[in-house]
Write a structure and sequence with these properties.
The chain is of the alpha+beta class. Helix content is about 25%, strand content about 45%. The chain has helices at about 25-35, 35-40, 130-135, 135-159; strands spanning about 1-10, 15-25, 50, 55-60, 65-70, 80-90, 95-100, 105-115, 120-130.
Amino acid sequence: MTDTHASETSGSDLGELTLVRTYAAPIELLFDCMTQAEHLCHFWGPVGVHTPIDGIVVEPHAGGRFETRMVSDDGSGEFTMKAVFVEIERPTRIVWTEPEVEGGMTSALTFRAIDEGHTEVTTHQTNVPAMYRSPEAQAGMQSSFDKCDAYLETLVASS
């Protein structure tokens, strides 16, 4: 289940987004998937791109780097994200900021175990430029969540 809320920040082109999704996976596994390159390479980015493992840097501690290089499946381009972790609290919270994005967009993921096999993730983003809040960008983000869900299903089934 995905629930998305968007709001504008008064007096600027920046806004906020809050997305809530429940995954059929334990909290520890979901946290690992968001902090380990060997998992991220399976789902990071929207449908139509892939993220090679050699294009991922994850240093999961405050001040550590979080970088990804997404490559269009049709070869038409590459998209990079360069962020710095602000906070890591295993297995309940991950916060990073993207200083190169206008306004220094910050993403905070909060993980809440619903039961042994289900985890709710709330993603709250601040200083979000308008282009990232567009319907197309939001559809891309949702497709990335769908890819994560499908990947998690393979991990849970094999355990």
